Amino acid sequence: MARDRIWYALARQGIDIPVATHDVRLTQLPAPPRESFEDAVERRTTSLRTIGLLAVFDQHELKQIAQEGAERLYAVGEPIVRQGSSGESMFVILKGHVDVSARNGENPAARLATLKSGDYFGEMSLMTGSPRSATVTAMEETRVLEISKESFGRIMAARPELVGILGNALQSRMADRDLAL
């Protein structure tokens, strides 16, 4: 009301106040084509082939993981996993990038890494069932493939020799985390 009164008072004195204007155009964009399940599985399988941890899996096993995995979308600044929370899955970044940080006691959180498309995280909780050892936050809109313990466990049960190989990779990753902290 005060703004209106001022405008009228100035207008009566012949003083024009420029008014910011803008043109709004509404356009209906066509919906993006729906991706078939088979195409989604193929895209996921291709992404999984680039993951060093999963290099020991054959094509059939990677396809099984791709079929059973769930794609999740996270907004900028949204935590994907939080340090200390329970978790029995791992994530492969399909698109976007994330920051990995962890606290040691009461100390401030330390940034451990920035991960991008093709990287993975959460394998420690997947393999051991232990609480999450770091917080992972999306730094841009990020799409991940979540791999469940059940899906991973079926493959491990069929090929028990993979336990030792993956255990070595896990131990190396834990040493890197401890060093960064």
How are the SSEs ordered, and which strands pair?
Elements: H1 2-12, H2 37-49, H3 59-68, E1 70-74, E2 79-81, E3 89-95, E4 97-102, E5 110-116, E6 120-121, H4 123-128, E7 135-138, E8 142-148, H5 149-158, H6 162-180
Antiparallel strand pairs: 1-8, 2-7, 3-6, 3-8, 4-5, 4-7
Concise overview:
The chain is an alpha+beta fold.
Description of the structure:
This protein has 181 residues and is α+β, with helices and mostly antiparallel strands. It contains six helices and eight strands; from the N terminus they run αααββββββαββαα. The strands form two sheets. The protein has a four-stranded antiparallel sheet with strand order 1-8-3-6. Strands 2-7-4-5 form a four-stranded antiparallel sheet, with no helix packed on it. Helix 2 (37-49) packs across helix 3. The N and C termini lie far apart (57 Å). The relative contact order is 0.16. The model has no long low-confidence stretch (mean pLDDT 83).
Task: Report how far apart the termini are.
Answer: 57 Å
- Which consecutive residue ranges, at least 5 long each, have pLDDT under 50? none
Strand ordering within the main sheet: 1-8-3-6
Estimated helix fraction: 25-40%
Largest sheet: 4 strands, antiparallel
Number of strands: 8
Structural class: alpha+beta
General form: elongated
Q: Roughly what fraction of the amino acids lie in strands? A: 15-25%
